[in-house]
Amino acid sequence: MLAAGASALLCLAYGATVLGPRLLWLALLAALSGLAVELVFARVRRKPLTGGAVVHGLLLALLLPVALPWWMAVLGAVFGTVFAKEVFGGAKNCVFNPVLAAAGFVVYSYPTIFSGASFAHLSPLADPANAWQIGALLCLCCALLMVVVRPSALWIYLGIAIGAYGIARYAIPETALPFDGDLRLLFTANGFMTIGCLLSVDPAGAPQRWYNRLLFGLIIGVAAVTMRCFSLYENAMLSALLLANIFAPTLDLLFAGRAKA
């Protein structure tokens, strides 16, 4: 969680220089909103406050357009904390990533408003043109930090890379790929790098064994590219990770049963 928080702060600092200080305001609101919900549940359950909602709020701000109304950031953070975390009993018991549940709630509830520049959507088409390169490098540095803190995260990253590149390069016709087949855009725009590097390795929503983590990453990579090419949703990586979260417990149970047999 500390590594995720440090990564979020690093990306927010750069995002604020490119997109403006309002990004920091959204991050503060999202963090405080999630913390308030977590505090209420901690008091009701008489359990210690973990503070994980603060990190989730910071990560959520990276996915939100800077022009998004402030109350949507608050609403999303509250929804994600309540319905993706607390109703399951807390951080160690949740099925879906609270950050993605929060962002998904805003995306699918207000699709016409959820648009505009955000850290997660930096690409070669953005202004300034080189912002996406620094943003992508920051995400990769954050991924390296995650691997240092939790080496098992490497299997998820490897699965995403193999699945995404393999299906984009060898299975899907170039005419069906967005951005005229430019893989740089496919793998940097629409939150692919941010979600893949910062959110996919959350241990609460990932399988436990290394081979299941590899399969988990493959599901994310394949689903993200497939949905981006053949659906109307630009936020395919967000949907792909939420989908993979559903399979995570099943992968552990399925392969654990076979191993015992």
From TrEMBL:
GO biological process: transmembrane transport
PANTHER family: ELECTRON TRANSPORT COMPLEX PROTEIN RNFD, ION-TRANSLOCATING OXIDOREDUCTASE COMPLEX SUBUNIT D
Transmembrane segments: 70-88, 95-119, 131-149, 154-172, 184-202, 214-233, 239-257
Highest taxon listed in the record's lineage: Bacteria
GO CC list: plasma membrane
GO molecular function: oxidoreductase activity
Keywords: Flavoprotein, FMN, Membrane, Oxidoreductase, Phosphoprotein, Translocase, Transmembrane, Transmembrane helix, Transport
EC number: 1.6.5.-
The protein's enzyme class: oxidoreductase
Name used for this protein in its record: Na+-transporting NADH:ubiquinone oxidoreductase subunit B
InterPro entries the record matches: NqrB/RnfD
